[in-house]
Specification:
With about 150 residues, this protein is mainly α. It has 6 helices and no strands. α2 runs antiparallel to α5. It is globular, with a radius of gyration of 18 Å.
Length: about 150
């Protein structure tokens, strides 16, 4: 069965394979990053309430990045390549901000907002490419491989 799955995976278009690899890499990095950032915020603030606010801002910014930015991208018919560039730029910028301003809850919340916004923008690109490059005959297999 594993051999059949690998053969089916190799038959997917290169773009679809790349999206699967991107999702796997993202999941691996995001789990590690969010775990350490959560611990970092707690160590910096010594407060569960501050950590909850940090996470609330993060997920709110993800929603804004996905919904508001996604709507803007669709209305202006922006390039998904530029969307990825902007998302990664803001993501990188958020960590540069954290590097220089890592103390104080206010700075951590600014980082949280920038980081979440970039993540939402990233997912706009991922889901747009999924809709474009997966087809009815490989969409279920694609979803299974992403979840693997």
């Amino acid at each position: 069965m594993l051999k059949q799955t690998l053969q089916k995976f190799k038959k997917l278009p290169t773009t679809t394979q790349s999206m699967i690899y991107l999702s796997w890499i993202y999941e691996f990095i995001q789990v590690i990053t969010s775990t350490f950032l959560g611990a970092f915020v707690f160590i910096q603030t010594n407060s569960i309430a501050a950590l909850c606010i940090y996470l609330l801002i993060f997920y709110l910014a993800c929603m804004i990045g996905f919904c508001v930015w996604g709507y803007t991208v669709s209305q202006l018919k922006m390039s998904m390549k530029w969307n990825y560039f902007k998302a990664f730029f803001i993501y990188f910028l958020s960590f540069i901000f954290l590097l220089f301003y890592h103390t104080g809850l206010q700075n951590l919340l600014i980082f949280s907002f920038l980081n979440g916004l970039a993540l939402g923008m990233f997912w706009v690109g991922v889901h747009s490419f999924e809709m474009i490059h997966t087809h009815k005959n490989n969409r279920d297999f694609y979803s299974s491989m992403v979840s693997a």
